Amino acid sequence: MTDLRYIFSQRDDLPDALFSMQGNSINTESSPYLFSNASQGAVLGFSTENLDLGYTSPSLVILSTTKTAELFAWLKTYATETYPLSQFGRVVSADDFKAVESPKNTSNIYWKRPDRWSSIVIGEILAQSDSDPIVSILPLSRANATFSFAVAKSAVAHRNDSVTDECIRRLKILSSDKRFLDRSLSLIDINPVWRNLGYLWDNSQGLEQLLSLITAPSNELFESPHVTARNTAFTELLSDSVEHRVLAFRNFLGANNINEKSYKDDSSKAFDIALAAFLVGRGTSHVFLLKESARLFPAVYVWFGLFAGLAGPIYWDIAWARAAKGIEKTLNSNFSWTESLPCDISWPEYLWIASIDNEKLIADIPKQLPKVLTIEVFPGATCQLRMKSANPIQQNLDVPIEKPFEESVFPQAELVYDFIREFIKVSDKHKLGIDVSTIGTDNANISKPTTPAKRNKRNR
What we know:
Helices cover about 45% and strands about 10% of the residues. The protein is built from 21 helices and 7 strands. The termini are far apart. Keywords: Membrane, Transmembrane, Transmembrane helix.
């Protein structure tokens, strides 16, 4: 991690410190634990490289866990330009700072390498797509809007299962926030996939290893006597004959439509359909087979991503390989407190906004993307959430309908319209060879033809 130096800034001095107005000569400490019970403020962390250059803008803002709400309220009232704090650097609570700096635990529930996670992220992108998704044209930027990407970042960056569990807990809070659009996938659907990502895979054993994922829990997920028939269908899907595998897949889907009651939940059905599609194509090439099933069971895509992640690149088609490696590149980065993280607000700021329940606080946040709020759920892990309204503060307001101009607003309008009608008539008569000098110009003559006698009388 980057070497940092720290100071404690009192609340009244914090705005000047954030805008680097305290001068170049500041007395910094090597320890970040500078909070006192009686004082209100924040600990600011400065990169030693920046300090050597005379650049005193903080890279890190550490907040006291107990006095955060009071500090945010004071800054929003008396130093509005400092809202949100995340515009200056990474904002974390003292507890999160300690959790990241503490020694890593030895548990291995979540996969701590980026290679398998990228396939899970692809699966969630496919599941969240509004239209029929195609892997080859998926925008990789959508990875930032998936729950799996945030969990992957926390697992890879910190390699601490307790940190990853805390990240998931916070995602549950965000998923229940009614200000954000609902998702087709719930965390209940995805969590089993995350926990199976660390399955021990032996490349020499081939795809038969995937069947071991369904052997142990079969009695819990399915009612007898369908368990035997189900396992037989998967065995047929391992045939070397393409025709046999395709026929087995069709029979499998037909049997599942008939015996829907054999499943105790939708998750197990999604698991089976995804595994069948992966086996029939012997890899990711037949992901299109999930299109129809995904309308009822969107979790099929994340399970399919799990199988792709476990099996590895040897079973990826070109489109999947390109997308997976593109996402893996963004996951494969070391965590640093001073890294420039693309987020709108931090987790402490979100908690404060949620507790106040003032939609104007969200409307006032400068956002990187329209209609989207990017939150750093845990240090190093961000998630994009789409707002239900582009401007939440106005979502319940009646927008007046703009009325057309009335004559009182534009009194010359009728004269202009008369002139246009007259001009069109003159043009038409000119085309027909009629003497245009016989055309009158006043409003009365527009409604009925003018005779030569009347015209001569007016001209005398």
